[in-house]
């Protein structure tokens, strides 16, 4: 057998490998260009009653999570109990950005399913979401003491993501 | 399917003269709107990834069109608006990504494949031509055939 008869087979196997890897990739997970950059500043009304203005500058000096969520988002409902559990561990303060949502709906959700957030601010027109490059809720940003975005989770935080990625990163950033 | 080819073609056709005129801040609405649509059709909607922001009716696309509209009104250039989008959503929003190390294969890949394919075709054809030029009989067979032919000829002539 001449080696050149094996060439089509080799090409076929190479294609299989490429297609196989392609199947595993999620096209929805677009790497954020904001990682390593300062988190966009915001000053928005919280969902508290009565609302107060919360500015992103207040979180300086601590590692915190910004969780982008909405009451209309099904992925967020799935994520919500996980966040509630995480907030009980007090490993990291979680702030919410209630993205393009009715504050009343959002408040209702928090009162019936628990509130994992230190505070949640209301992004009524989605402007702050655009600043953060949000394109699909839920999304979560890990922001360090200097206000730099260190990680972006696209889609719900699962216990696995928390244990394997976010918690180690938070510990590292807190130690720094 | 057709419009996927048509839009880039039309864009290419209108590109240079139109952009030169629109460098001044857009004051009249139709001009600004045309600029918005030109820009939006170059940008990918991240919610429905195979549509442009111009085509898509997703919430985010509508918001981003409004954002671009305001930026045009505030006098930002097309390049500045694109930079704004790339800073937030990455190169992925551009339907024509810039030539960088990470996108090099994307741009060069097709030409590379064409060159490889062309090379294979060239050498295959060359080989085939050589094979065709080669005598089909071995030297001994040729000699035998010639001698047979000659004996035939000598018989006929005698």
Describe the structure.
The complex is a heterodimer of chains A (176) and B (158). Chain A is of the alpha/beta class and 176 residues long. Chain A has one domain: Glutaredoxin (3-Layer(aba) Sandwich), CATH 3.40.30.10. Helix content of chain A is 38%, strand content 19%. Chain A contains five helices and seven strands. Chain A has a five-stranded mixed beta sheet. The N and C termini of chain A lie far apart (62 Å). Chain B is mainly alpha-helical and 158 residues long. Chain B folds into two domains: 92 residues, Cytochrome C biogenesis protein (Helicase, Ruva Protein, domain 3, Orthogonal Bundle), CATH 1.10.8.640; 54 residues, no CATH class. Chain B is rod-shaped, with a radius of gyration of 32 Å. About 9% of the residues of chain B have low confidence. The interface between A and B is medium-sized, with 17 and 15 residues.
Helix content of chain A: 25-40%
Largest sheet of chain A: 5 strands, mixed
| Number of extended strands of chain B | 0
Strand content of chain A: 15-25%
**Order of strands in the sheet with the most strands of chain A?**
5-4-3-6-7
As a percent range, the share of helical residues of chain B equals 55-70%
Query: What oligomeric state is this?
Result: heterodimer
């Amino acid at each position: 057998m001449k080696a050149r008869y094996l060439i089509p087979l080799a090409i076929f196997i190479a294609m299989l490998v490429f297609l196989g890897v392609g199947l595993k990739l999620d096209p929805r997970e677009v790497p954020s260009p904001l990682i390593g950059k300062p988190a966009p500043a915001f000053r928005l009304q919280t969902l508290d009653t009565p609302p107060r203005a919360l500015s992103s500058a207040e979180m300086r000096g601590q590692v915190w999570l910004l969780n982008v969520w909405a009451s209309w988002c099904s992925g967020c409902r799935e994520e919500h109990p996980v966040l509630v559990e995480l907030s009980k561990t007090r490993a990291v303060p979680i702030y919410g950005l209630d993205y393009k949502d009715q504050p009343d709906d959002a408040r209702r959700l928090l009162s019936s399913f628990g509130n994992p957030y230190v505070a949640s601010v209301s992004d009524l027109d989605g402007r702050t979401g655009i600043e953060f490059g949000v394109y699909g809720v839920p999304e979560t940003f890990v922001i360090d003491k200097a206000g730099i975005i260190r990680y972006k989770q696209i889609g719900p935080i699962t216990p696995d993501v928390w244990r394997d990625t976010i918690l180690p990163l938070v510990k590292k950033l807190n130690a720094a | 399917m057709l419009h996927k080819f048509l839009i880039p073609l039309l864009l290419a056709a209108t590109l240079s003269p139109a952009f030169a005129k629109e460098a001044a801040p857009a004051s009249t609405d139709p001009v600004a709107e045309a600029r918005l649509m030109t820009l939006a059709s170059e940008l990918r909607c991240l919610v429905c990834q195979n549509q442009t922001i111009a085509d898509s009716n997703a919430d985010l696309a509508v918001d981003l069109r409004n954002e671009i509209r305001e930026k045009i009104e505030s006098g930002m250039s097309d390049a500045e608006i694109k930079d704004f989008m790339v800073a937030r959503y990455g190169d992925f929003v551009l339907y024509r990504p810039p030539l960088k190390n990470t996108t090099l294969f994307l741009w060069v890949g097709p030409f590379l494949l064409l060159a490889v394919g062309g090379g294979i075709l060239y050498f295959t054809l060359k080989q085939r031509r050589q094979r065709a030029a080669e005598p089909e009989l071995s030297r001994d067979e040729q000699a035998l055939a010639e001698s047979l032919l000659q004996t035939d000829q000598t018989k006929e002539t005698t």
